[in-house]
Structure formats: structure tokens, C-alpha cells
Design a protein that fits this description.
9% of the residues lie in helices and 47% in strands. It is mainly β and 257 residues long.
Length: 257
């Protein structure tokens, strides 16, 4: 399903306000959390993180270079539980979560070939799936996004229930007049959760995309926003799956050694 918004915009087009998904840095930065382990920081343009044990795996990645986010939460259908616990007992739950977000300040300028008011089209799309497990199971996938001129606009970001509803936001903003500039703040987040054998696989990408007309330049606070080609979704899926397995493999080697 596709959600269309009117031009610029978004501070007044709030669907759900929720600041719990992460507080952006002053100008730019990235964050990735997997199984409670966090990484990233102000001024960084790319971060990845992973966590794994015998019952769960989680991976997360955020990239300003490609304007993309990736998150995976997996829980086993055959868990190893403490003595006295059974998988069908709600008190013996096992699960994990992953989340990623980015934030950047982008300045747009146009040369004399453009009239003030020429549109710049942009979109935010989310691709992934959730699966029920063998036992009682729950999963969730939520994405939040903001594009606008308010540096605090992320607080009222649009929220997409990526598990059940709209998967894409699209709109336009207007090119500034020659000799002037337009400052736009861009924030995106992706959060997933799975427990009891469920899976929330959004390693295929939450992604920002825009169509900058010739003669319109963008300068970001990070210096890296949308400067790299976006790899194929399958590449990210394989990479995040590998990252999630690494800690488990290291522990197994240590036991064998």
C-alpha cells in the first residue's frame, strides 16, 4: 500500500507521534541496536550490529551513504530453556529486537536553470515480512520517517506499521530560488521484534530515495548522505544473516578449542 502526502508538509501530516525509536544527534549520525547491544554515534555515516545466542538472532544496520536501514529479529522454534520451562509456557518466553535509525541535515541549492517551485520528488519505502512461529509467538515491525524544515520534526515523525499497513510514503518539496538555499532535515528509523519462534525479517531494506533535477545540488552535514549506490536487497540479507551467526560461531569454536 502506498501513502501519498502533499508537498512540504510533514510536521502537520503526523499519523503517530512516537519519540521512543531514538533521539537524533544535533546534525547527523547513525544508530544500530541488536539484542540490546548498541553502536553508532554522531558524525558517523554507517554502522552495523549483531547479536546471537542459541535461541535468538538479531541484526541491524544504518547507512547515510545509501539512505537505508536494515533490521532482523529471529527466534527459534526449538529453544533451549532452563529447567522447569517448556516452550508452551508463557512465563518461559524467549525473543529479541533490533532497531536502526539515521539523521542528517541537507542543504539544497539550485542554479539559474531552475524556476523557484520546481518539484523534487522523494519516497520512503519499507520491505520485509513477519512470520509466526511454532509456539505462542509475536512479532512487530515499525518504521518512522520525517522530511521537513523543522530540526525537531523527527519528534512528530510519521509512523508506519510495516507489519500490517502502508509500506511507502512519497511526496515532493520545492526547489529554492537561484542564489537561495533550502535546509531539509531527514530522519528514518526501523524497529523489529520477534519472540516465541516468530521472525521479523526486514533485512531487505527501509530506504529513502529522491529524484534531484539536474542543476540542483545537495550538501549534507554528514558529507555522505546518498553518495553511494544501494546494494541489492539479497546482498544485505546475506550480510546481516552472516553477522548474526558470527557470535554463535565464535562461542562454538571456543568450546571446541
Amino acid at each position: 500500500m502506498k501513502l501519498l502526502l502533499t508537498p512540504l508538509l510533514l510536521a502537520s501530516a503526523v499519523l503517530t507521534a512516537n519519540a521512543a525509536a531514538g533521539q537524533p544527534f544535533a546534525t547527523s549520525g547513525v544508530h544500530a541496536s541488536a539484542g540490546g547491544q548498541t553502536a553508532g554515534g554522531a558524525g558517523q555515516s554507517h554502522v552495523s550490529n549483531s547479536f546471537a545466542n542459541v535461541n535468538v538472532q538479531a541484526s541491524a544496520e544504518a547507512s547515510l551513504n545509501t539512505g537505508s536501514l536494515h533490521a532482523l529479529a529471529w527466534s527459534s522454534n526449538n529453544p533451549t530453556l532452563i529447567k522447569g520451562c517448556r516452550p508452551d509456557m508463557l512465563s518461559c518466553n524467549w525473543g529479541t529486537s533490533a532497531d536502526a535509525w539515521f539523521y542528517d541535515k541537507v542543504t539544497l541549492q539550485a542554479d539559474e536553470s531552475h524556476d523557484p517551485g520546481d518539484p523534487v520528488s522523494w519516497s520512503w519505502s519499507v520491505e520485509g515480512e513477519t512470520k509466526r512461529g511454532k509456539w505462542w509467538s509475536g512479532s512487530s515491525a515499525t518504521s518512522r520517517f520525517y522530511v521537513g524544515t523543522n530540526p525537531e520534526g523527527w519528534r512528530n515523525a510519521i509512523t508506519l506499521d510495516a507489519k500490517n499497513s502502508s509500506r511507502e510514503i512519497s511526496s515532493t518539496f520545492l526547489v529554492p530560488a537561484h542564489g537561495q538555499s533550502l535546509v531539509v532535515y531527514i530522519y528514518g528509523s526501523l524497529s523489529v521484534f520477534a519472540e516465541g519462534g516468530a521472525v521479523a525479517d526486514f533485512s531487505h531494506t527501509a530506504r529513502f530515495n529522491w529524484d534531484l533535477p539536474t542543476g540542483v545540488t545537495a550538501t549534507s552535514a554528514s558529507g555522505h548522505f546518498m553518495t553511494a549506490a544501494v546494494p541489492e536487497p539479497s546482498t544485505y540479507g546475506l550480510m546481516l544473516a552472516g553477522l548474526a551467526v558470527l557470535p554463535w560461531a565464535r562461542r562454538r569454536l571456543a568450546r571446541c578449542g
